[in-house]
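Reviewer comment 2.1 asked that we show a complete input and output for one of the modelled complexes. We chose the nicotinamide-adenine-dinucleotide case, as it is the one discussed in the main text.
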Amino acid sequence: MQEYKLFIDGEWTGSSSGETFDDFNPATLELIARLHKASKDDVQRAVDSAEDAFEAWSRTPAPRRATILFRAARMLEERKEELARLMTGEMGKVLKEARGDVQEAIDITYYAAGEGRRLLGETTPSELPDKFCLTVRRPIGVVGLITPWNFPIAIPAWKIMPALISGNTLVFKPASDTPLLSIELVKILTEAGLPRGVLNLVMGEGSTVGGAIVKNKKIRAVSFTGSLETGKWILGEAARDMKRVSLELGGKNPIIVMDDADMGMAIDGVLWGAFGTTGQRCTAASRVIVQEKILPLFQKRLIERTKLLKIGNGLDENVDIGPVINNTQLQKIARYIEIGKEEGAKLVLGGRIIKPLPGHFIEPALFSDVTPDMRIAREEIFGPVVSLIRAGDLDEAIKIANSVEYGLSSSIYTKNITNAFKAVEKIEAGITYINAPTIGSEIHLPFGGVKSTGNGTREAGTTAIEEFTELKTVYFDYSGKLQKAQIDVE
Ligand code: NAD
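Response of the prediction step:
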C-alpha cells in the first residue's frame, strides 16, 4: 500500500505532525492508500511558498504559462484510462463516468491554456479627447482551492487551470475521500514544468486544514465547491479579511415532464440524471415533476426501467450504478428513505442497503406521492433517490421547481416551444436544459447556481477567468494638460 506526502514548495514532504489518514475503495472497502495529514504549520508553509512564488509566476507572460498547461493537457490525455481506473477504485463511479471526469479535466486544461493568449480586457472611448481607456486583468494573489469528492479530477482542474493561467499561486486541498487524483494532477503539472511553489497540495480534515486555508490572512481568495453548510461557514470567515469567495454548493434539481413530452426520452433522461454517479452529483435530478395526466404511465415505465439497472463495482463495464462514497453517506441516504416513508410518501421501488456486497451499496429508490413540502422533496440527499411529484400544469410545475432553497440545475421535457421558453424564463436555476437531463455541463459555458447554491460566481467558460482575476481600469491621458472627467465636457 502506497503512502503519499504533501506537496509544498516543490517537494513531497511529510506532515510536520507525522499524522496520516487512510483512503478506502468504497466498492470493496480495501485500504488503498495512506496520506499525510497537514498540520496548521504545514498549511502556513504552503501559503508562504505560494506567496514567494507569486512575483515570478504572475510576471511570466500568460502565453508562456499556457505552454505548461498545454503540456499537462497532453499528459492527461495519454494517461486518461489509467486515471479513470484509479478514480473508479477510489471514488466508486462507474468507469465510463470516470473517463468522462478525466475528459472534463483535459477539456478545461486545454481551454484554460487557450486563455493564455486572450485574458481579454476591454477598450472603450473616453468622454475626453486625447485620452485612452482600457481594462487589464491582474491575478489576485495567493488563492485557496477546496474541493469535494464527487468529481475527483474534474473539479480540481476546473479551479486549478483557470487560476494558474490567470497568474495566481495556489494552496489546494482536495477531499479526504479522494486525494489520489489530485496527487496525480499535481505530479502531471510539475512534470509539465510548473515552477516550485506555484501549486501546493495540503491534505486532511476540512475543519482543520480547510479551515486554516480560509483563515489565513495571506490568502486573498477562496474557491470552494462543497456543501451549503461548509460554504456558509467559509463565507462568514472570509468576510473578516474581505477575501474574495466563490461558492459552488448543493442542489435539489428538478426535471419537469409535460404531458406532450417524448416519454421514452424523458425516462432515459431521468435514469441518467438521477442515478448517474449514484446520485452523487450537485446537478443530480432528485425531483421529477410530472404532469398528472401522464403520471401513472410514466411511473410504471420508470419503475420497469430502474429495475434493469445493474448495481456493483464500477470497474465492471456492465454496471450502471456504483457504490456511494462512504458509510456516513450510505447511512444518510438510508435515513432519508425512512424520513420519506414517515412523511407519507410511497416507496415504490428500492431503497435497501445491499448487504451481501462488501462495499457501500444501496438500491436506487423511487418515491411516489411526494408533496413539495416533504423533506425528501426539499433537502439534498446526494444519493440515488427520486421523488415523483404531481403537477396540474406548467405554472404549478414551475412553482414546485422553485419551492426549494437551492437553484443549480433544472430541466424540462416538452415538445411545446412555449413551455420550453417559459421554463427558461421562470425556473430559478443557474442552468436549464430542454429535453435533456439536469447533468452534462460543458466546460466552455458558465456553471453555477442561484439562491443557496452559491454566491453568484460562475465557474468554467469565460467566467472562470473572472473568478480568478482582478480587473484594473487604466486611463491614459496624452493631452498634455489637466482634463477633468464630467466637468470639461461642454
Ligand atoms: P463538504 O462541504 O463536506 O466538503 C467539501 C470540501 O470542503 C472537502 O475538501 C472538505 O474537507 C472541506 N471542508 C469541510 N469543512 C470545511 C471547513 N470548515 N473549512 C474549509 N473546508 C472544509 O462537501 P462534500 O460532502 O465533500 O461534497 C458534497 C457537496 O458538494 C454536496 O452538497 C454537493 O452538492 C456539493 N457539490 C457542489 C458542486 C457545485 O459545483 N455546485 C459540485 C460538486 C459538489
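The chain has two domains: 2-249+454-474, 253-434. We note this here for comparison with the apo prediction described in Section 3.2.
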